[in-house]
Amino acid sequence: MKKWNKRWTMTLLSLVVCQFAFSRIPVIDDGHQLWLSMLHNQQLAKVQLSLTYDGSSTVSPSKTVEIAINELRRYWRGAPITLEADCGQKQWEQGDEGFTIKRKTDGGLLLKAHGRDVGLLYGAYYLLRLQETGQPINPVEQRPAFGLRLLNHWDNLDGSIERGYAGRSIFWNNSPLSTQAAANSSLFTLHSSLLEEYARANASIGINGTVLNNVNASPRMLATEYLDSVRTIADVLRPYGIRVYLSVNFASPMKVGVEGVNGGKPLATADPLDPQVAAWWKAKANEIYRLVPDFGGFLVKANSEGQPGPGDYKRTHAEGANMLADALAPHKGIVMWRAFVYGYHAGVEDRVMKAVNEFKPLDGKFRSNVIIQIKNGPLDFQPREPYSPLFDQLHQTPMMPELQITQEYLGQSRHLVYLATMWKEFFEQLGVGTAPADSKQTAVANSPLSTLHSPLSAIAGVANIGLDDNWCGHHFSQANWYAFGRLAWDPQLSSRDIAREWLCQTFTDDSHFVNPMTDVMETSREACVDYMMPLGLHHIFKGDHHYGPEPEGNQPNFPDEWKPVWYHKAEAGGIGFNRSSTGTGATAQYREPYRTLYDSPETCPEQLLLWFHHLPWTFLMADGKTLWQSLQDHYQRGVDMVDSYVETWQQMRPYVDVRRFREVDQRLQHQQQNAREWRDHCIQYFRQFAQPLGE
Ligand code: GCV
């Protein structure tokens, strides 16, 4: 029996090997190559270089240009290319990161950087993307919509990642890098090459900055030995056009000493108006810039969820941010000050109104190198939220959206949920990417994000990256990293086109695979909303880990604003949170037409109905169904969609390597069970209020 088993296994194995031997599909792929699994040229492609510096042509290429050349030599299969850049001082340092591609009279291609050398790198990846996705190469001029396109890593110095679902941190592992290098140099070298792969992947989608640590920041991050690690990381990322930034703990001066202030000892206060505190931050900034001359700046979570901040000293966010901004200004660094603030004042204040209440009075009071970082929605990365009204309320302060790539509330790395459709919905509400195609304006021109007073323009995405073989846990979660970069570069791209691009590059360009899987990706976020919290329901997750359903959640030790029952307010009379003018008045924080639209249940989009309104179970929806019936139908629709994804994936077997097929399959089965659990649990819970009405 044993022998038979072995033979049977061998036969099966050889069948599998045969299947893949005649295709480009490897038998086993761990997904580590991401969307960059290009075939290496047998013979290097022809690439010429024409670099000038203020008229002279004796310039040797920077590392960045070398990378661009090497990428094209290895992978480009089209016409010969000439790379051209004028590295005159002005363009090199301040010029934009864009590029132009032209056809030359001899049939070759010209790739010209608009300003900085990284334009050549972005141009190289642009060409390779067109090649790999089978698109024509036409003359083009490209420049990014957002100046700063950043990842935020919520990585802790001990190597754990807050809301990370793909293994441990790629940056940190308990001790500073210098200690690790001393202990095991080969492991250290491996780590550097991993960081280089990370940098390459980011450069290929235009990401140009990264915040290396959690916004719930350890003060130790600013200790000299860790700053030395930051230098090491910055040195690896720099050639790929990526600057590093740090999250800082506002009370750091009370925990860490700095040379030249208070005899190198920590201070007794972190009051931003205390001259010693300001001197501490100046000295720290100087120390950082000595190690990392192009350091980007600080990201700050202050007076939120227990983090220290200027409020501890009765100072405003502006006073806190400005003090840090002054320390960074001589080095051209910036402060990204987060608007994700709320306290435990439920009953007094609706949490979703907090940011406007706190930041609107400070509009125009921030230094010019401060930018307010605002989550897309006013609550917390829910499967669906309206946009944050703070975007409508600041007119003299630069703002940047914070999106969440890691799927904290969208099935984490276990559910296939493509987020580009959600981000596009947000951009549309904000008017980002609505400038006409032929317009010379930037993609953010028609939106509240374009501040006439400031050249700062930025966007951040909370990363979903860890040490897992495939970086992101779920193979399809890679698409969210990819889509974030692509949309940060060009928010006018459609989610569908990005999905297709990603599928072609990551798996295969076979239309039998790409077409159905594009449909799966495109519908997956709405399916998730349906099986988790349709019609504007929100925050009915299990406490703390935010994974499964807990509409009954009412922990007595929690503040109201963490409790699911506080958000859905289900009772015999109805369900939903009244935030209209007859409720908390949150609708008044929006600009028109949204203020009016959201304020009435008759005009409020149904997908946000229960976010803004408390309505009877018998409320009639547009299609004539009652609210209760509609809610049940949405839950069922979500489950049906996931059932269909499981079936579709079964048809994809011939197009995917064995490992990725199996891993995606397992996760889809899991998602299917979870979707059913969400439906059954929520409907059963809500039924106790809805059913007595005879519904
Ligand atoms: C980093 C939510 C998350 C927290 C996160 C916080 C934030 O509350 O659950 O893990 O903390 O947002 O964005 O600061």
Model description:
- The chain is an alpha/beta fold and 695 residues long.
- The chain contains 20 helices and 13 strands.
- The strands form 2 sheets. An 8-stranded parallel barrel has the order 6-7-8-9-10-11-12-13. It has a 5-stranded mixed beta sheet with strand order 1-2-4-3-5, covered by helices on one side.
- β9, α9 and β10 form a beta-alpha-beta unit.
- α5 (177-183) crosses α6, α15 (511-532) packs antiparallel against α19 (627-651) and α19 packs antiparallel against α20.
- The longest helix is centred in the last third of the chain and has 33 residues, at 658-690.
- It is globular.
- The structure holds 4-O-methyl-alpha-D-glucopyranuronic acid.
- Residues 154, 162-163, 214-216, 301, 305, 340, 380 line the site of 4-O-methyl-alpha-D-glucopyranuronic acid.
